[in-house]
Records
---
Amino acid sequence: MHALTSRGLARTLLGVPLACLVFMLAVVSTRSREKLEALRGHGVSTTGTVVVEDCTTEGEVAYRFIVDSKEYRSKGFCPVDCKTARDGTEVSVLYDRRDPNSSICEPLQQELGRMRRFFSPLIVAGVAGVGGIFWFTRRRAPRIVKAK
């Protein structure tokens, strides 16, 4: 059995967590894209209202809307400022008619663009990081020092 070299140890300690992070980002990105594609194909527009007491500091706005006499709540990046919005401010909501729990309050194209701007660079950077780890820990030929 071979002992783990310092190069192999470095690849393991750096590469495995980074590869796991890239994998998780890819899964989240794929699930988000699937949700948006479902909304594109089965989306229904309605009017919702902002719920001010549930706004977050990350820029997400809590909103609620009614479908078939049932209230649904969600959070998203709505085109309103949570700090200046009042409880009950109207927002446009797009929900999946098959599952109203799946909804967005931002226009679909903006949501797709935001997702692309966020996830794509992270995944590319993660893949480049894994490649960089292997490149920096590659086996290097020993240097020959000439005697003078």
---
Amino acid sequence: MIRSTLLTALAILALCQSAYSQSFSERIESLRLRGGHLPGAFLHNQQASGLIWYFSTIGVHAVALDGKHDRSVQDYLDRYLATATRPGGAINDVQNLVADKIEWKLSDSDDSYASGLLSLACWYSRRKEGTAWFKANLKQLKFIATANLVDAIDPKHNLSRTFNGTKSRFTDPLIVGVWNNEHDKDQEAKTNYRDVCQLMDNCEAYRGLKDFADRLVELYDADAETYADASKIVSKGILAMFEPKTQSFRVSTVPSGSIAFYPHRLIQVAPEVYGVDLGPDTQVIYEHAWRYLSAGGDRWWQGEIKDGSNDGTPMMILAFAAMRHGETQMATDHLNYYRKMLARRTSRPEMGNIEELGWALRASEMQSPSRQARQE
């Protein structure tokens, strides 16, 4: 145990000493743990002592696309699956890896985590060593997809619930601890959170389900239809989240308070980022949503978000969204701003969060026409 703790501490120290001139890809790869409690996992940033699997998966998927990191991708997938032991194949995040014993913390969802995992696994399954790996782990992947996405769909909204419906998931000590927090007296709100459906989560769910179904079709797997049908149900639910009156998407199935840049405006890009099929008016809806993103006057591509709801993070998903939407100059300006901030030694550690690096890498790859196909 002492050896694992020491190895983890040394690995984190090495990350803090990394050069500021690293590329996005190098920065992501530098977050990979090569020893300690969870070798193969990726820290949240260079000064973090813990990790968030959802964000890690975004970064790993981005760095995987150049085809030069297959070994670290498989190691990450193996580590993820070995750690996804909560009810329904869910996974908890890590608060602290430096302590003698891992300190876990509740993940903020089950559906988003499962979706990202499925998309990454499907991508890797097309690599040289990936097909055999995919087939060997297919039973567990199907279990995770079914419990956290298919069975989590709320028929009232045709959307995936944030947490899976496994009864024992709600007796998880971490969930009970969060929901019994003395600072949160609204028991009804906490109970309802079990059933809330989030727009971003469901855009991710659509992509994960569709990727999984498409890959199963290629492998002549009879279960492909189950996941394809689920993705179509979710896309209908997402379409119903679009409000004609405001020409924008609702954040979730519960009231989300007064309009803020995050989540209300940023969330508008989610359907386009994840390529959700919204029927014949898909592109029209994407355009309305994009206009709503910018309606507040924020110059996000220069780091100017007036209400501060981004909490100091650059929201690099918007650079990727801008590239997909054809706003290449905005995307370029956003990437240039981000590179400048990363080069500053005085920047907050959160500036180098793995998800921010991942979206920046994917956006920068799209600047080259020869590389754009990797993003599909």
---
Amino acid sequence: MGGRSKRYLLIIAASGTVLLVVLAAFAAFGCNGEPAQEDQVSQVAEAATAFLNACGDLQAEEVRSFFSQDYLQDNQVPDPLTQDDLTAALGYLNSYRLLPDQDITVEGDRAVVSVTIETSGKGEMEETMVFVQEDGLWKVESFTAMDWSTLTTSSDGEQKEVEQALNEFLIACIDSDTSYIFENLSEDYKEKHRLEKPWTAAEYSGIFGTARSFDFDPNDIEVENSGAEVDVTIEFGTRGNLESETSRVHLVKEGNEWLVDSFPFFIY
């Protein structure tokens, strides 16, 4: 199965924030020789935006370089870190919103950063990063958006392949990428539903509607012979009017690819 193209849009919400961060690096030091509070905030902001940019660009080794030694050890972050490892832990980062003056709190050699991020298939989420100083640099000590346990709980062979195939299929569903969806439906599914080409935008809206996010537990994926299945939950609707539906999704292996063979969310 061909990989999905990685799309991202990095947003620093306040106009001129980047310039502010760069100029603030030259701020005066405090009277005791320590960096002034404003300077510390700007340094943390620089580290946070560089880290999030690297996440959005899927620069896996660059992302790894931002982690503290304690973080690397506690979370058993792979070395080297690959793009697949990064997306398994975080997903595909589309955008983030960070206002340094409001979202960063520095206390000594520790800083807490509140950030709003949007990842494909999961929508917009409020997350928290904790930075600590290590060898004179601000390093990531904690990031609530990342879950490294997925690398160990779903890393066994075909289960991992199914997880990746389903994740990318669901992202395509959220993004209304009907060409990708068509290419990754099984031949039996296409024959059963008489699909000869991708749906148009209007057709797709009629059978799937508007979805905002999805969720499934990789640990619950059941693989047997050339088939796999797992419960998937999709959130439909718009803000203030959301409904969640859960159904069993089936995949089959055709050649070297896992294709969706049953997807009850498509209503004909």
